[in-house]
Amino acid sequence: MENKVYELLEKMYVEMNEKFSNLENEIKTINNRLNNLEEGQKKLEEGQRKLGSDIKELKQGQELIKDHIDQLDSKNANRHIEAFYKLNNIEKDIKFIKHKLHQTEEDVFDIKDYLKIIK
């Protein structure tokens, strides 16, 4: 009977050692997976920081572009006003030239008429 108890205890000891060995292996596997998750999290956090930095740079660039467009808009508005003013002056000059041309034609007509009388 002592032998049976000893064999039973030995069998239990072997089984418990196997189970502890399996548990240790599972714990190692879990620790490896946990380490991988932590490394992945660090990479994600670094990527998130870089993304935040990139977004900040994009916003700054966007503000610079807005400022540049605002400056261009004001310059274009001034150019439009200047062009409109010049077109008005050209229109006045054309009207004046037409008026002078008409006066010249009348003078030529009068001179021709006068020359007909003299002949």
From TrEMBL:
Coiled coil: 6-47
Gene3D superfamilies associated with the record: 6.10.250.370
Alphabetical keyword list: Coiled coil
Superkingdom field: Bacteria
Keyword Coiled coil: yes
Keyword presence, Coiled coil: yes
The protein's name: Uncharacterized protein
Organism: Caloranaerobacter azorensis DSM 13643
